[in-house]
């Protein structure tokens, strides 16, 4: 709202929200598709790991830890001089990742500024529409819940694989329900409430910055051989941008669910999670729903033992609609607060 007068912000907010809730994400010509293609193209040209892995360590699986990759470099007969330059290589690849991040973000914001010069607050409304993912999230989770409730695990796994990066091929009903509920709670924070937070503060520029940074984290922020160093800045930037929105989301889940268990799980379990933002969101959400999340999950071929989040029984197919309702109630609360604040400033 800092770069818009209250009436223009209100018009842009109402229109963007209406487009999102009525139409959902654009089915064709979504700007993020083009942005993702450009990010992949730039990563292939800037990322040193891509080149070195291809030339020196072709037999090292993509999911192996980067330290194993570097040990492979030291043993390579092709580039022995590189063996003593590991730290320099790491720093250089981090810097190249940061430069690629800055190029993509700054170019996108500059293009948005040009559009805004011609369209005014309409550009802010479009940015909000493109950034929000509420309807898409609800549709994807329902696509998991429906077959899961009838015992159709194959269809449920396929639907789940569209919204998570973990291996879904051998998940049972509990594993599918757990993964779907975790994704519902976490994506509620990332795809809905963080976008609303940045739109409230900075209009279209804010929501665009957050959505693009979140997209780059989703593409580059993995601890794999190829991306461990190159994607570090993308991952850290997303952590910083989501720090406040994640905790506001966690607070909302606590207020709108079982408050005592939600707050207790947030305080006691969130610090044990490896993500500084997903921990509070999922712990508070699991406690608010009184279900147990976390545990073992397979990502990129590696089994991860994760701490337990929440309390109560493990989730079932019937808990997925409960997760949607919690996110919907939180969305209604945020909309009411933002509209009330805008009307008060008029």
UniProtKB/TrEMBL annotation:
Location (main, coarse): membrane
Compartment annotation: Cell membrane
A GO molecular function held by the record: ABC-type vitamin B12 transporter activity
Record key words, sorted: Cell membrane, Cobalamin biosynthesis, Membrane, Transmembrane, Transmembrane helix
Topology in membrane: Multi-pass membrane protein
UniProt pathway annotation: Cofactor biosynthesis; adenosylcobalamin biosynthesis
A biological-process GO annotation: cobalamin biosynthetic process
Cellular component annotations (GO), alphabetically ordered: plasma membrane
Transmembrane intervals: 94-114, 191-209, 326-345
Pfam families: CobD_Cbib
Role, per record: Converts cobyric acid to cobinamide by the addition of aminopropanol on the F carboxylic group.
Family label: Belongs to the CobD/CbiB family.
Entry-linked PANTHER family: COBALAMIN BIOSYNTHESIS PROTEIN CBIB
Protein name per its UniProtKB record: Cobalamin biosynthesis protein CobD
Gene field: cobD
């Amino acid at each position: 709202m800092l770069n818009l007068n209250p009436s223009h912000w209100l018009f842009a907010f109402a229109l963007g929200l209406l487009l999102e809730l009525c139409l959902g994400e654009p089915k064709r010509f979504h700007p993020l598709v083009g942005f993702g293609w450009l990010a992949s193209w730039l990563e292939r040209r800037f990322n040193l790991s891509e080149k070195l892995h291809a030339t020196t360590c072709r037999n090292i699986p993509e999911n192996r830890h980067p330290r194993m990759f570097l040990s492979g470099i030291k043993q390579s007969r092709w580039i022995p001089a590189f063996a003593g330059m590991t730290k320099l290589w790491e720093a250089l690849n981090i810097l190249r990742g940061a430069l690629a991040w800055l190029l993509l973000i700054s170019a996108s914001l500059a293009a948005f500024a040009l559009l805004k010069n011609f369209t005014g607050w309409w550009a802010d409304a479009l940015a909000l529409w493109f950034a929000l993912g509420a309807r898409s999230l609800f549709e994807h989770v329902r696509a998991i819940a429906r077959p899961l409730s009838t015992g159709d695990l194959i269809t449920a796994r396929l639907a789940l694989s569209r919204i998570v990066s973990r291996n879904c091929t051998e998940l049972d009903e509990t594993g599918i329900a757990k993964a779907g509920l975790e994704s519902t709670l976490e994506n509620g924070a990332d795809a809905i409430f963080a976008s609303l937070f940045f739109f409230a503060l900075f209009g279209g520029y804010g929501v665009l910055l957050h959505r693009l940074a979140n997209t780059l984290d989703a593409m580059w922020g993995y601890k794999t051989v190829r991306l461990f160093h190159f994607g570090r800045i993308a991952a850290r930037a997303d952590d910083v941008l989501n720090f406040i929105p994640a905790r506001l989301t966690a607070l909302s889940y606590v207020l709108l669910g079982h408050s005592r268990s939600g707050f207790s799980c947030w305080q006691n379990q969130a610090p044990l999670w490896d993500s500084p933002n997903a921990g509070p969101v999922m712990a508070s959400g699991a406690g608010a729903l009184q279900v147990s999340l976390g545990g073992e999950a397979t990502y990129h071929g590696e089994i991860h033992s994760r701490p337990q989040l929440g309390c109560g029984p493990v989730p079932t197919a019937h808990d997925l609609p409960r997760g949607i309702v919690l996110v919907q109630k939180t969305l209604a609360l945020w909309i009411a607060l933002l509209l009330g604040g805008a009307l008060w400033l008029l």
